[in-house]
Amino acid sequence: MKQYVIIGNSAAGISAAEAIRKNDVAAKILIFSDEDYPAYCRCLISYYLAGDVKEEKILYRPEDFYRENNIELFLNKKVARIDPKKSRITLEDKTQVSYDTLLIATGASPKLPETKGIKKRGVFGLRTIKDAKEISGLLPITKAACVLGGGLVGLKAAYALKKRNVGVKVVIKSRQVLSQMLDSEAAGFVQKRLEENGIEFILGEDVAEIIGNGDIKAIKLGSGKAFETSLVVVGKGVTPNMDPIKETEIKFNEGIITNNLLQANIANIYAAGDCAESFDLTLGGLCVNALWPVAVEQGRVAGANIAGGNLNYAGSLGMNSIEFFGLPAVSLGIYKVKDGEAGFEELKLHDTKANLYKKIILKDNFAVGAILVGDIKNSGVLLRLIRERIEVSSFKDKLLRENFGYPDIMALVKDKEHLYV
Fold it and tell me: Which of 41, 43, 146, 275 is catalytic?
């Protein structure tokens, strides 16, 4: 009987465990997690903090999932290092565990800037349910909070805090919100909707110091201005958790380098999720797409291959969706063409009064990216155009029309039963 070890108990790890069990009913499956909580939907944490969803609703699988699938789950067990030559992992408590095949699905952690005071009590990332619970515990005595960063996590944190009746200022170094997801026009719609609901933005500024003796009292900006706050949430992106592999022969750049089977450079080691570098369909090279649906799909493919399969992972693409105070926005693939980059064509619709923005980016008559704000119903159709490399010249003039939809491309899609969104 083979023994499979999975490091990580979130989207990729759970999806892989399910795929392994589906293909090998007898194998021993061990999952190690450095958290003390069963698998939960990490993407719902901000909505849990906002009070939009209850704690029991964010569980990713039923409580009896591990028992029903004969999976041994080890919580609060951090893996200190991996020894590929001996096919063995070592936990922080010195326990050693052997494996026949290993999946590394260690995920990612918030990037913390080297700002003076960043380690003070009251500074949080928003990555785990522990973060959300600790922030929530301080809200009854919190009147004002500051969010560092205007990316997805930062804005979700700001939204959640505002929903809990806390005053929120968001400090962003760049000149727009969501600069890694939207162009400036689309970002303007999102910022306006958040401002209409009481969230303040400070653009083009960075934080010089988090002030306070023990508890946080204020934020000092690079310009010298300061304002009171007692809670800080950092939302400046994430970085893959690479600590267990740094001293090994496993190859990595930003994340672990994988092939089309999601296999690392060592035959019995695979990687999936936020710690894996895999092929990006629109960029044409390896990158980390730290997204929940990507992690699920990668886990499924890696798990099947770990159990003896030969599934090819076609690749992922950047895709994000948000909704704040009734305004939805989606970005797919390439969302902005760099200045001077030739060969691209942009189709665009901008209607300020209707809170409507659509942009589709084409290259050689193939869709390579899109942004939708306000009306996102065609995001699934556009995703198929991008993923399946469908040539659009025959219906390009219809792409921005309100009545454009799946019937217009039905004859062209490869897998008529597969839905990506």
Answer: 43
Mean pLDDT across 384-392: 92
Nearest Cα residue to 240 out of 105, 115, 148: 105
Average pLDDT of the residues in 4-27: 97
Q: Does 275 participate in catalysis according to the annotation?
A: no
Please list, in sequence order, all residues whose beta carbon lies within 8 angstroms of the beta carbon of residue 149, skipping any fewer than 6 positions away: 170, 171, 172, 173, 234, 235, 236, 237
- Could you identify the residue written with the tokens 């408590």? 93
Q: What is the per-residue pLDDT for 141?
A: 94
State both tokens at 256. Answer: 């672990």
| Cβ-based neighbours of 56, under 8 Å, separated by 6 or more | none
Task: Answer yes or no: is pLDDT of 385 > 60.
Answer: yes
Banded pLDDT at 419 (limits 50, 70, 90): very low
The HSE-up count of residue 190 (CA atoms within 13 Å, CB side) is: 29
Per-residue model confidence as pLDDT tens digits over 270-306: 999 999 999 999 888 999 999 999 999 999 999 999 9
Q: What is the pLDDT of residue 417?
A: 47
pTM score, whole prediction: 0.89
Helix 11-23, helix 292-306: angle, nearest 10 = 30
d(CA 303, CA 311): 10
- 7 φ/ψ sector (left φ>0, alpha ψ -120 to 50, else beta): beta
For residue 421, CA distances in Å to 152, 319, 392 come to 19, 10, 20
CA-nearest of 212, 383, 372 to 282 is 383
- Nearest residue to 267 (alpha-carbon basis) of 45, 27, 85: 85
Q: Which two tokens stand for residue 126?
A: 């928003």
Q: What gap in Å lies between CA 209 and CA 229, rounded to an integer?
A: 12
Tokens representing 282 are: 């629109």
Token digits for 285?
Answer: 């090279």
